[in-house]
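Changelog note: in this version the structure field was regenerated for every chain. One regenerated record is shown below for reference.
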Amino acid sequence: MIYMKVVVGLLFDEEKFLIGQRLDENSSYGGYWELPGGKIDEGETSYDAIIREWKEELDIDVEAYYEIPNREINGVDTYPFLLRFKSGKPKLNVHQKVKFIDMSEIKSYKLTPISTEIVYIVRRSYSLFLRKKEKETQ
């Protein structure tokens, strides 16, 4: 039974992506790392929600360039997005830390269940979503 709809986003910079550590006092998975996102408001599209949530949580303007098909994870209807940076500098509005990590580092972080599932999905299709830095030829 689905009791909530949420969006989560992966913001890539080269081969690294941004994760945030929830505040320790958060009643739901305090201290865990996550892909930032949040609840979809009544009447809001998933696209609008991911843009709003990243602005509210991190003060970063993003563009959603790919929506991974939504799926139920632990009773939560989850809408994952791949994001491009537009502007802003991360602020710690709802996180105690944020950092960019490489996919190979992910096992070193205790992720929320939803983030774990989405990272697994992206990892299986890793090469489709990440662009290697093009070598300059001169």
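Spot check on this record: The CA atoms of residues 114 and 134 lie 32 Å apart. Residues 46-58 form the longest helix (13 residues).
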